[in-house]
Amino acid sequence: MKVTCNDSMAGAKWLLALLVLCSGLLVAGEQGQADEKSAELAKKVMVAMGGHENYDKTRFLTWNFFGSRTHYWDKWTGRARIEDHKEGFLVLMNIHDKKGKVWQNGEPVTDEKLVADKLQWGYEVWINDSYWLVMPYKLRDPGVTLSYAREDTMENGRPAHVLTMTFDSVGVTPENKYEVFIDKENSLVRQWAFFSKADDENPRFTTPWEGWQDYGKIKLCGDRGKAQLTNIAVFDTLPDTVFQDPAAVSTSQL
């Protein structure tokens, strides 16, 4: 059963983050590390989006990444369907073990090296593209370090708390970092800034996180300024064929 969805289109590119940058008193636990103020703000963000329990209970997510790729993701099992709209590749895989099958323009790919390359590609774009969708739910993930940076004003003119977000032994680009802007009034992430290097003075880009809507029992958003995540949807169930059959998915029947 489809819970809800959102529509629009555009294009862009991203790199995922990781590095360690921490300051002040750190609180370590089953989650990532965070100073006391960052931990409290991250908790408020999660509550504003529906809470840990509701996010954990959300099983199936689908979205289009900037017009380039469409994803179907089974959060509970790791199954993923990744449709590449530029070169016609289809990857059906499990992102936990990186095993799966590959098609191009409807034909099975049999070249072992190409299959291996595209499965690795599928894993990396899933990391990237899902992070653009669900990053605020992962502020306290293992391997993440949060530190409180400052109060600031976002590009939309609203006041925000700013967290520095870095990473330890997770992700695929260890030199990056983020600044995450949390709206003071509603505790939602409304902007982020990406830094190619941890010691860079200026971000490579800054984009909004706007268009927050209810999807089932959680909130998601797709407005990233010049680029858009579109066709966002949450499902209680999806047929196994979505993750097993290379035939085109009929969204009207989901």
Describe this structure in words.
With 254 residues, the chain is of the alpha+beta class. The protein has a single domain (2-231), classed as outer membrane lipoprotein receptor (LolB), chain A (Clam), CATH 2.50.20. Helix content is 19%, strand content 37%. It contains 4 helices and 17 strands. The strands form 3 sheets. Strands 1, 3, 4, 5, 6, 7, 8, 16 and 17 form a 9-stranded antiparallel beta sheet that branches. A 6-stranded mixed beta sheet has the order 2-9-10-11-12-13. A hairpin with a 2-residue loop joins β7 (99-104) and β8 (107-108). The chain is globular, with a radius of gyration of 18 Å. Residues 3-29 have low confidence and may be disordered.
Which CATH top level class fits? Mainly Beta
**What portion of the residues fall into strands of 2 or more residues?**
35-45%
Low-confidence stretches: 3-29
CATH architecture annotation name = Clam
Number of beta strands: 17
How many domains make up the coordinates?
Answer: 1
What's the helix-strand series?
EEHHEEEEEEHEEEEEEEEEH
Spatial shape: globular
